[in-house]
Design brief:
- The structure holds three protein chains of three kinds.
- Chain A is an all-alpha fold.
- Among the domains of chain A are: about 1-35 and about 45-85, no CATH class; about 190-324, no CATH class.
- Chain A is built from 16 helices and no strands.
- In chain A, helix 11 packs antiparallel against helix 12 (about 215-235) and helix 12 runs antiparallel to helix 13.
- Chain B is an all-alpha fold.
- Chain B has two domains: about 1-75; about 85-140, no CATH class.
- The longest helix of chain B has about 35 residues, at about 1-35.
- The radius of gyration of chain B is 30 Å and the shape is rod-shaped.
- Chain C is mainly α.
- Chain C has one domain.
- Chain C is about 75% helix and about 0% strand.
- Chain C contains six helices and no strands.
- In chain C, helix 2 runs antiparallel to helix 3 and helix 2 (about 15-40) packs parallel to helix 6 (about 100-115).
- Classes of the chains: A mainly alpha, B mainly alpha, C mainly alpha.
- Chains in contact: A-B, A-C, B-C.
- At the A-B interface, helix 1, helix 3, helix 5, helix 7 and helix 9 of A face helix 4, helix 5 and helix 6 of B.
- Chain A: Keywords: Endoplasmic reticulum, Membrane, Repeat, TPR repeat.
- Chain A: It is found in: Endoplasmic reticulum membrane.
- Chain A: Its main location: endoplasmic reticulum.
- Chain A: It comes from Apiospora kogelbergensis.
- Chain A: One of its GO terms (cellular component) is EMC complex.
């Protein structure tokens, strides 16, 4: 159980978060509150591990999420004791705490002013810049958030997390082109991130669906390539196969006319036999994954329940259309 | 599983220690006898001091094999080195794949390291999360 | 030998390589010193001592293959004695530990030889 405390809790389900925060009083009681600097007394106390502070940080976030302010304050207090309140990461955590405590927009504005004051002193304080962007976005001031984020990327263009956030903001505004561009920047930094490959494929599919039909054949072809790469980087990647299945279905139903220009780019979709083969492979793999997951086979239980359900629905839909 | 390998190793070490002590006693006895029977011929002395009794030799070899077995069983689980196999294992098995033989998840297991690019802990919107959680509680 | 392009298409996970190599070399250096103890007790001298070491090192590697590598690599369709799922080269797996443990072996060999035959 504690292993999931070593990873940031953002993606956990509410049930797991609740479970974690219910454990919080126990963990706080059993872990050392402060680590002494004196060499003599450190012989007798528990050793200080880097994991301890990660656990406190993640516990703090889980507790805030579930509304357990008391434990959250205890965690923060220990982190401040250890690292001091001028540590950049601790400053961001203090900010999160204030944001969570705020009840109305006026208080949030005050927090925002504090962030700006901190940035006046040190404009390259990355955690605080990120907090400011998140707060601006949360307040609905999207243009300001984008400006702040591009400012951050100007001085640290290798921050893949920031690029990914930028892509998500663009995506929420329906600007698919920019969102895909930002994710491609992430891929430059992390060329083997299989989930980002799949994410670009999904964005391409959504941009086709949203209606700008200028060159959907080219985009479908590229989406196909993205999904194929994500599968190449990761065996049995459910999300990749799901996207591949959707793309091939679309391409088979409505084969786009090959255009001269797309062909010279090397971005045109592959020919019919290849498409059918890919479609068959995706169907087969999705079937295998859903079957093994439902059968409760060992070593196949890491998938997300909701994704499995979606895959099964997709398979049922496609099999019913082929029967007709 | 881990208790099995540990007990195998311990048993092997006990055997080895016993063999070591026996061999020491044997050689001490030999030299003592050689000193007291110095009137005997030189050839007999040499033959007696150099050869170890068969049971001690056997015990030593068996102990070594047992210790080796225990040590091999005690090694950590290997991890696949090809990217797609490694990533596939993370996606397919989750924490299950990183469980050592004793049933604990490896300390340095991080899951999908690129998950952070999608959850983005630095940009967490804590108020939205709180709201979602409150709604989830209401539904329960 | 795979080319640069192949490494781009099918990358290798450096953390896993390090983890596996560490597991194997830890095992080999530890077992080498145990073999030294055994050789000292047996009172082996010169060539027979080295022969003993080589035989037991090969035995260790075989055991390691049987218990740690074979179950998963055979299941994933690799041939017998193919370690490419966990190690980059065959040489690294089969011969890498022989020389790594030799120093530790000689150390404990001479120590226990001296202790027992004092």
């Amino acid at each position: 159980m504690t292993s999931s405390l070593l990873r940031p809790p953002g993606h956990l389900s509410p049930a797991t978060a609740l479970q974690l925060s219910q454990q919080a009083p126990n963990i706080i009681k059993n872990s050392p509150g402060a680590v002494t600097a004196s060499a003599f007394s450190s012989l007798f106390s528990a050793p200080e591990t880097p994991e301890l502070w990660t656990i406190y940080e993640n516990l703090l976030l889980s507790c805030l999420r579930t509304g357990d302010e008391e434990s959250a304050h205890l965690c923060l207090g220990r982190l401040v004791n250890r690292f001091g309140d001028d540590n950049e990461r601790v400053m961001a955590l203090i900010g999160i705490m204030k944001e969570a405590d705020a009840t109305d927009d006026a208080t949030l504005e005050v927090v925002l002013k504090e962030y700006e004051a901190l940035l006046q002193e040190n404009p390259t304080n990355t955690p605080i810049v990120k907090r400011r962007v998140a707060l601006l976005r949360s307040l609905g001031r999207i243009p300001d958030a984008v400006t702040a984020l591009t400012g951050l990327l100007d001085f640290s263009p290798t921050d893949s997390e920031a690029w990914s956030e930028l892509s998500d903001i663009y995506f929420s505004q329906g600007m698919y082109g920019q969102a895909i561009y930002a994710l491609e920047e992430v891929l430059v930094l992390q060329p083997n991130a299989w989930n980002i490959h799949a994410r670009i494929g999904e964005l391409l599919l959504m941009s086709i669906k949203s209606g700008d039909q200028n060159d959907s054949a080219k985009q479908l072809g590229e989406a196909l390539k993205r999904f194929c790469r994500s599968i190449e980087l990761c065996d049995d990647y459910l999300r990749g196969y799901y996207g591949l299945k959707i793309t091939t279905t679309q391409l088979l139903e409505d084969p786009p006319k090959p255009s001269k220009q797309a062909e010279s780019d090397g971005l045109s979709p592959p020919n019919l036999p290849t498409l059918q083969k890919l479609d068959g492979l995706a169907t087969e793999k999705l079937g295998e994954i859903t079957r093994r997951f439902t059968a409760g086979e060992r070593g196949w239980q890491g998938f997300d329940e909701a994704e499995i359900v979606a895959a099964r629905e997709l398979l049922e839909k496609s099999s019913s259309t082929t029967v007709r | 599983m881990t208790w099995f390998s540990k007990s195998t190793t311990t048993f092997g070490f006990l055997l080895l220690a016993h063999a070591c002590y026996s061999a020491y006693e044997h050689s001490a006895l030999q030299s003592h006898r050689a000193a007291s029977l110095s009137s005997l011929s030189a050839t007999q002395q040499q033959a007696a001091s150099s050869s170890l009794p068969l049971d001690i030799s056997l015990e030593t070899i068996v102990a070594t094999v047992i210790i080796t077995l225990g040590l091999v069983l005690n090694t950590a689980k290997l991890r696949p080195i090809q990217w797609r196999v490694w990533a596939g294992q993370i996606e397919r098995a989750g924490e299950e794949g990183a469980r050592s033989s004793s049933g604990e998840v490896d300390k340095d297991y991080v899951g999908n390291p690129f998950k952070l690019l999608e959850s983005r802990p630095g940009f967490v919107d804590i108020r939205k999360q709180r709201k979602e959680f409150a709604e989830w509680v209401k539904q329960q | 030998m795979p080319t640069e392009r192949e490494f781009q298409v099918a990358p290798i996970v450096p953390e896993s390589v390090m983890h596996n190599t560490k597991a194997l070399s830890n095992l080999q250096s530890l077992s080498a010193s145990i073999f030294g103890v055994a050789a000292g007790i047996l009172g082996l001298e010169s060539y027979s001592g080295f022969l003993f070491y080589f035989i037991f090192t090969i035995l260790t590697t075989m055991l390691f293959y049987t218990f740690r590598v074979a179950p998963t690599s055979l299941k994933s369709g690799l041939g017998a004695f193919d370690t490419s799922r966990y190690f980059r080269t065959q040489y690294e797996f089969w011969a890498g530990g022989v020389f790594g443990g030799l120093a530790g072996y000689i150390l404990t060999w001479t120590l226990f030889y001296g202790l027992v035959r004092a």
